[in-house]
Amino acid sequence: MSTTEQTYIMIKPDGVQRGLVGEIIARFEKRGFKLAALKMETPSKELLEKHYGDLADKPFFPKLVKYMLSGPVICMVWEGLDAVKTGRVMLGATNPLASNPGTIRGDYALQVGMNVCHGSDSVENAKKEIELWFNNDVKQYKLDAAQWIYEA
């Protein structure tokens, strides 16, 4: 059964530098998701090490943190039915070469090391990431277009 939930989506430094912010936001809006929080952040090393803590023992971890420190990121919370699962589908596979055309990574990326976006991989991780990046400062409002997106 589908449920309304929130997901954390982050446009990484390569996506910001390449001018893809508007396109990515537009894709989520056009899909029908509600933007609940948005900010540009220049993350600290400590914040990134917390965010990517589950990857700390991987050999690529130092390179990942260095890349994520290379420029600002766009932090977003999107809300809607099955937002986590659908958000991941919209982003495409972590390896852009395995991503289908029409996905964000399939359309805009070629290598795992610069794959444009991050998306929560579970509802539990979305909650943790939203707390980490936004301290749960997420706006609650009614999306007037919801009547044109969701069945009554």
From TrEMBL:
Residues 4-141 form the Nucleoside diphosphate kinase-like domain. Its EC number is 2.7.4.6. PROSITE patterns: NDPK (PS00469), NDPK_LIKE (PS51374). It catalyses: a 2'-deoxyribonucleoside 5'-diphosphate + ATP = a 2'-deoxyribonucleoside 5'-triphosphate + ADP. NCBIfam families: PRK00668.1. Belongs to the NDK family. This is Nucleoside diphosphate kinase. It comes from Saitozyma podzolica.
